[in-house]
C-alpha cells in the first residue's frame, strides 16, 4: 500500500507551491484581522 502511495506522489511544481503560499498568506491575513477585531472588543462579561 505505501509503495502505491509513494509511486503516485509527484513533487509539486513551483507554480503550485507559490499558489499554496499565496493561499496561506491570505488565510493568515484573515485570521489576523479576526483576532484583532476580537481583542478590540475586550473580554466577554460574565
What's this, in brief?
With 46 residues, this protein is mainly α.
Largest sheet: none
- Sheet/helix structural class: mainly alpha
Task: Please estimate the helix content.
Answer: over 70%
Mean pLDDT: 84
Q: Identify the overall geometry.
A: elongated
Runs with pLDDT <50, length 5+? none
Topology as a string of helices (H) and strands (E) = HH
What is the CA-CA span between the terminal residues?
A: 53 Å
Q: Radius of gyration over alpha carbons?
A: 19 Å
Beta-strand segment tally = 0
Approximate strand percentage: under 5%
Number of helices: 2
Tell me what the structure shows.
The longest helix has 28 residues. The chain is 76% helix and 0% strand. The mean pLDDT is 84. It has 2 helices and no strands. By secondary structure, it is mainly alpha-helical.
SSE blueprint:
Layout: H1 2-8, H2 14-41
Key features of this structure:
46 residues, mainly alpha, elongated
Amino acid at each position: 500500500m505505501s509503495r502505491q502511495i509513494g509511486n503516485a506522489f509527484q513533487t509539486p511544481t513551483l507554480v503550485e507551491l507559490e499558489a499554496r503560499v499565496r493561499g496561506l498568506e491570505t488565510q493568515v491575513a484573515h485570521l489576523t484581522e479576526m483576532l484583532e477585531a476580537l481583542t478590540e472588543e475586550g473580554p466577554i462579561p460574565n
